[in-house]
Write a structure and sequence with these properties.
Length: 667
Amino acid sequence: MTEHRSPDAKFRTSLLEENAGPATNPTNNRTMGEIIAARFSRRGFLKGSLAVSAIAATVSPLALVSADQARAAEGSAFAFDELEAGIDDKHHVAPGYDADVLLRWGDPLFADSPEFDPTKQSAQAQAKQFGYNNDYVGYIAIDGSAEHGLLVVNHEYTNPHLMFPGIVKIVEKDGKKSADVAPLSKEQVDVEMAAHGGTIVEIRKDGGKWQVVRDGKLNRRITSNTEMALSGPVAGHDRVKTNADPLGTKVFGTFNNCAGGVTPWGTYVMAEENIHGYFSGELPEGHQEAANYKRLGIPEGAYEWAAHYDRFDLAKEPNEANRFGWIVEVDVNDPTSTPRKRTAMGRFKHEGAESIVAKDGRVVFYLGDDERFDYAYKFVTSGKFNPNDLAANKDLLDDGTLHVAKFAEDGSVEWLPIVFGQGPLTAENGFASQADVLIETRRAADLLGATKMDRPEDIQPNAVNGKVYVMLTNNSKRKADQVDAANPRAENAFGHIIEIAEDGGDFTATTGKWEVLLKCGDPAVADVGATFSTATTANGWFGMPDNCAVDSAGRLWVATDGQSPKTTGRTDGLWAVDTEGSARATSKLFFRVPIGAEMCGPLFAPDDQTAFVAVQHPGDGGEDWEAFGRPSYYEDLSTRWPDFKPDMPVRPAVVAITKQGGGKIAV
């Protein structure tokens, strides 16, 4: 019989991102903080937009002259009345807007799907219902319509203490409470596996409100057991062969799909992020993957899947973990198609895969590696996008060049190609082929001298102004002697946003320029060093930028992850951030989530009349029990959002935001 977890373990899946750990990057590569610090010291007094940032770092925006505030407000690209920041058990949106729950965990997706019953969960039911912890949200138009299309949604991970009744017991010792969590049964693990992956579902706007088309012929669930193909340079390599797949070409499932993307040719891409939490056990002594797995934090063992399935036990299947950490591409027009893991795009803890067609027709994807002291990447296809023959683009992602970013203190950025045989990526350093380089993308980037970043998450190209926005969530482990130009703060609790301008406005360029758009946190606290504009109100500042979106007008919207009563005194939410003119670095709060939740998505419909947002892990207090007042688990939740029924647990959900009376958002 498996023993209960130690009370010290508490809710381990809530800590999966934190358990990315002390950072696994062993190099002496310069950190972004060192580069930013050196750059600022070279400049002395800052000029232009950064001068506004320097002022805001030391003076409360409420104390600055109203004339400056008015000037910035007049130049803002956003027209809406700002929402008040705060914390409660509900979601809130700016006045004049509706925020309607569209899809909840467990909602049926097919004509024969069972209705959701949290006390009678099964893998068979979950595989026909909307999955758990919705993250990335994408929209693929049907017949070019902005009001009828496919919604594609990632399901990143599961929180069993919020999902399953009867598994948590609160124990108190020496006046401190902790959670004794019972081991999951095989049936509960099967539900978890079915709740991961992604959803493809037809939606339609009717009378100004979005509805799910339950019998949509393209509706599909992708899970941790869906058959997938490895494609590109790694397919068939010895390091991805297993007992179940001696050819090294067929993988079952995908998991921890965080942000993602939709390609110009209308496919759905899913990014596999914190894969380390799903593996347990120990590699055989002296196994060749030991250093590779250590660099990725494998095994971490937050999930109990190895107790029931040998493929997640490294002692039994030492190569299985090499089959995860990729970008997965799904053909949404064929529900029977086999998703493909596009190995040419590298293996790491992927956050996002946002793309743009460059001037010469090649397609560029920007990719973050979401861990402290890891890197920002971009992938440039070798082939060109053919808008007149979408089928001709089906294998563009199998051939291209992956690059990693190196930021310099003079404000330049260089994109270094990650190509076998070039520079240090040779047999002398343990690489025998491009497949080896891609399996160990992090080590290859280490050797190239890439800049160590503060958790690079979503990276979004902007087709309107030609810029690229990099969300850097935080890095509390960065020490004072590790700051650099692009990561300017030690113990960076609140994160920052970098803006890149590729040389010549060409997204395929290997060089460019960069600026810090925002250093996040409360600008009223001088020691924080935040750089919001003077027009940003007490409601408008934020910390922990995570996901972002650029609407069709080229305006930047930022979603946050990690705000709480303890860290910022507010919940996560969606902020509108000006990037141009006198209002640059001004931020306004548009939507906020209930207590314990993270803000994911966001996504704007093609006509900008709907913003889709994903409310992830509502009611999850994590380990921040003192700030939340008490632990939150199935029987004693801090919120029962969105149903607010005593017999229903908290349910992650996608929300559709529309303007009352219709029209474009924030116009």
